[in-house]
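Appendix B, example 12.
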Amino acid sequence: MKLWDKGYEPDKMIETFTVGNDRELDLRLARYDVEGSMAHIRMLESIGLIGKEELPILLAGLEEIRKEILDGKFTIEEGIEDVHSQVELLLTQRLGDVGKKIHSGRSRNDQVLVDLKLYFRDEIRNIAHETVHLFDRLQALSEQYKEVLMPGYTHLQIAMPSSFGLWFGAYAETLVDDLQLVAAAYRVANQNPLGSAAGYGSSFPLNRTMTTELLHFETMHYNVVAAQMSRGKTERATAYAIGAVASTLGRFAMDVCLFINQNFGFISFPDEYTTGSSIMPHKKNPDVFEIMRAKCNRLQSVAGEVALMTTNLPVGYQRDFQLLKDVMFPAIEEIKSCLTMCDMMLQHIRINRDILSDPKYDYLFTVEDVNRLALQGIPFREAYRQIGMQVQNHTYSPTREVHHTHEGSIGNLCNDHIREKLLRVMKEFGE
């Protein structure tokens, strides 16, 4: 069955090539297709295109299909082109000709658009929640280990004292910045395209405000051409948001791989959370974070794939858009998996509390001692020269005292203020 059936069948190779794996991917949209149809037929009844006695019959039929989807019993049969065709076929088989009325006033173009908007809206919110879980874990670790010092680096050279409180807290706050982009993607997705039909509206007196309210969209894509142009735009915004979160996760994974190395020895994990070597009995590899790093690097390329598939396309719908699902659906699952795995691993992280006792970290404290002299009244450049000469002459002996009190420093992490930033961002999701 094809929604565009006009009494002829395309060549089998043509159909196979153009449909691709759309049937499998469309299963993710099935629930949203039914929910979009339920809102659409309520609107059709309000303008007289569906009878008052027909509406409850259609709603009950769609609800039955929706339950089958939620129970995992829904499939797209062989020979059925997509999820939209399968839902309409089931409805018609069960209810008769009344099932054919649900497509009045819409095209497959705005039907798939509303499915995707609802899907992306839910999944973007899920990504936000998974990010918050990791944020909570990082902030808890930041507070737990705020007194434990560790080396800070610039140019990968020993630089100044840092702390595990700063390290964990830094990634927590960076995730808040990433959530700004996730929230922006959510706002792009949270607009109703239903009623734009094939991209040029309909001569039926559709009530698009009604479907916007029924589907709980924040607003609608008012211009029907703009609604169709949002195909690809929503995916690009979502891909950038995923890439932002992935960038932070990938960088954190790299830190873990570095800090677990024996030459650093800052952190460790229980044996069961590492993997071994086939020939080196001593190896305990951070494979989870290495895979996470690679996946997150790959996820940052998704926005580029979306851009390359959609850049410079002319106005209106093009079949190119279908391939966006091949890229976006796996990316969404992968970023959620990485967030979940990172949170799980951090539940078992072990911190080395005695890193700085090693003399190789003595020079971490040069800035502290320069600042101490400056606070005693010695001009900063003179204090810098004095400590510098001690280093040069190998006579420097650190005080190993750290007194940082300003906002966001070792002694004043401001984690409560960072959480307030997070809560402001999460209000964008109606949280």
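The chain has a mean pLDDT of 92. The radius of gyration is 29 Å.
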